[in-house]
From TrEMBL, chain A:
The keyword Transcription regulation applies. Component of the 7-subunit TFIIH core complex. It comes from Rhizodiscina lignyota. This is General transcription and DNA repair factor IIH subunit TFB5. In NER, TFIIH acts by opening DNA around the lesion to allow the excision of the damaged oligonucleotide and its replacement by a new DNA fragment. In transcription, TFIIH has an essential role in transcription initiation. When the pre-initiation complex (PIC) has been established, TFIIH is required for promoter opening and promoter escape.
From TrEMBL, chain B:
This is RNA polymerase II transcription factor B subunit 2. PANTHER family: GENERAL TRANSCRIPTION FACTOR IIH SUBUNIT 4, TFIIH, POLYPEPTIDE 4. Keywords: DNA damage, DNA repair, Nucleus, Transcription, Transcription regulation. Its main location: nucleus. Residues 399-463 form the Transcription factor Tfb2 C-terminal domain. NCBIfam families: tfb2.
Length: 89, 473
């Protein structure tokens, strides 16, 4: 571990190789059921997902996070019914 | 995030030239050293302060316990990013060595031992002020101004439209700043608090001041103000003495302009715009120290903003197992904060009562407030009677608030970086272990050899080091 910092002979190329390995974005962690909805939303618009990781994780574009949340909420509204509040105080 | 971390993060983004310019001023060097460096970094800087020659990495390693290598890497990485320490580039086979930046070392030495006529620690007025303001009134002024800013932010939320009967009003400049910092959004002419705004509200005062000042710094360029000038002045303010009046005579034009804005935040006090002297308030003098700010830690809205301002730091909230909430307060600001996540229905002269409902909590969550923030706010401000309970908050209520959050928010989003295409299993294993030890590892998949980390700077240095070693081998 220490050697990495100690080694002064970094060269630009090594940094470039590393930059190729790195993908900035937003990691979404959720249940498989929600993941399926996200995949469905993406299949309609093709502009959210950067990298599909597994059944419970996916990388999306940072700029699209808010939009995805809204779309997900809309999708859930159709499937999940909210219980009514009792309203008594 | 604490105040110092926030300021540190801002500084790390600055260019080397800006930082070196900043280090010319002893008070800046001292403030950064004292307030922002990790402990180990402080020790390293102190040890190197009077060294005349570069200090070799091997010698440095001899001081570090083998189990603290991660801390050492972190400390060196912070110091290098702040351009306080640099590697000496002697041609191999000379060993890697470090040296302190000349400017930084000189300023820090000057700050510690005195001397020079840099005046960076402020120039007290030579003549006594005919009507001097005392510390108590300075605190009152600072509190009033800062409260006005907070109230401007919350007053807009939760549908509470109470007249701003108390405190001061804030200037248009400050309002614009709050919008630029994305603390409030203007919708239909009315300011609405945002997610960032609410997190801001729950921070302790010192952190709040820095958050706002960082927005101010970012806007300084647009206002034709010199960033270095602005930063230097803030660090100077942090080293001034409370209750002392200082002369405006040796300030630059930028700094004079700043005085106007800062007095609007309650950071400095001036009798009027033409006054030849200014007083730093407690908000200023605690900028670069650990001492409790005007508003002691974790009680931001409690002690400092109590309606009487008498430092009443007792809790005032009672939550019952049936989700009912009673708050013994008459402070409009406190009520407005509660209204963000409670359905309030009755207000008495010294008490408001309401209920935590699914709808009110989820509304708060939509604003970006987290369940944990709500719970910690309620716990921190629990009435002494309730605070006797262990745990303080009824467990049913705590669990329900969390469940309401999960229901509304079905996915967890983390901004950061995916690292993929590892060459070998060892490279993958070493990297995730290193990331984990740095505390930046968020997610990993061993089968696909994928990592997700919240910060990348140190890791990419680490990875590039590994690559070049692999190449050499």
């Amino acid at each position: 571990m220490v050697k990495a910092v100690k080694d002064a002979s970094f060269n630009v190329k090594d940094y470039e190789t590393v930059a190729d390995m790195v993908l900035p974005g937003v990691l979404i962690q959720c249940d498989a059921s929600i993941k399926a909805i996200i995949n469905k939303i993406d299949s309609q618009y093709h502009e959210f997902i950067l990298e599909d990781l597994d059944d419970e994780a996916v990388i999306i574009k940072e700029s699209k996070l808010a939009e995805l949340k809204i779309k997900l909420k809309e999708a859930l509204k159709d499937t999940v019914r909210e219980a009514e509040e009792s309203g008594s105080d | 995030m604490t105040a110092s971390m926030q300021a540190l993060e801002y500084l790390e983004q600055q260019s080397g030239a800006t930082l070196i310019k900043l280090y010319r001023q002893p008070s800046s060097a001292l403030a950064i050293f004292r307030r922002m460096l990790p402990h180990l970094a402080k020790n390293i800087v102190m040890a190197m302060l009077y060294m005349t020659k570069p200090f070799s990495d091997a010698d440095l390693l001899a001081w570090i316990r083998p189990d603290a290598l991660v801390e050492k890497d972190q400390a060196m990485s912070v110091l290098e990013r702040l351009h306080i320490i640099s590697k000496v580039h002697d041609p191999p086979p000379a060993p890697t060595a470090y040296q302190l930046s000349d400017k930084f070392a000189k300023s820090l030495r000057q700050a510690l031992t005195g001397g020079g006529n840099h005046r960076s620690f402020g120039v007290p007025c030579s003549t006594p002020d005919p009507d001097k303001i005392d510390v108590e009134n300075l605190d009152k002024f600072a509190r009033q101004q800062w409260e006005a800013i907070l109230y401007y932010m919350v007053g807009s939320a939760g549908g509470m439209q109470m007249g701003l009967s108390q405190g001061a009003s804030i200037s248009d400049g400050t309002k614009m700043l709050l919008e630029m910092g994305n603390f409030v959004e203007r919708k239909g002419g009315r300011p609405i608090i945002t997610q960032t705004g609410f997190s801001f509200l729950l921070q302790e005062a010192n952190t709040q001041v820095w958050s706002l000042l960082i927005v101010y710094l970012e806007s300084a360029d647009n206002l034709q103000m010199d960033k270095v000038d602005v930063l230097s002045f803030l660090f100077t303010l942090g080293s001034l003495e409370l209750g002392q009046d200082y002369s405006t005579a040796n300030l630059t034009a930028t700094q004079l302009q700043m005085l106007d804005d800062l007095s609007d935040f309650g950071i400095v006090y001036r009798r009027d715009n033409q006054a030849k002297r200014f007083y730093p308030t407690r908000l200023a003098t605690t900028l670069t120290s650990d001492a409790g700010a005007l508003l002691t830690s974790n009680s931001t809205l409690r002690s400092a903003l109590s309606p009487t301002g008498s430092g009443n730091d007792k809790g005032y909230i009672i939550v019952e197992t049936n989700y009912r909430l009673y708050a013994y307060t008459s402070s409009i600001l406190q009520i407005a904060v509660l209204a963000l996540f409670t359905r309030l229905h009755t207000r008495f002269p010294n008490l408001v009562s309401g209920k935590l409902t699914k709808e009110s909590i989820q509304r708060a969550i939509n604003l970006g407030i987290t369940a944990d923030q709500v719970i910690s706010y309620l716990t921190a401000h629990a009435h002494p009677q309730m605070a006797k309970n262990t745990p303080v908050m009824p467990p049913t209520v705590v669990d329900q608030i969390r469940l309401w959050q999960i229901e509304g928010d079905r996915m967890k989003a983390t901004t950061g970086f995916l690292i993929k295409e590892f060459g070998t299993q060892t490279e993958y294993d070493d990297t995730w272990k290193y990331a984990d030890s740095l505390g930046v590892l968020v997610w990993k998949n061993d089968i696909k050899r994928l990592l997700f980390v919240s910060r990348i700077e140190q890791l990419s240095t680490y990875l590039a080091g590994k690559k070049s070693k692999a190449r050499a081998a």
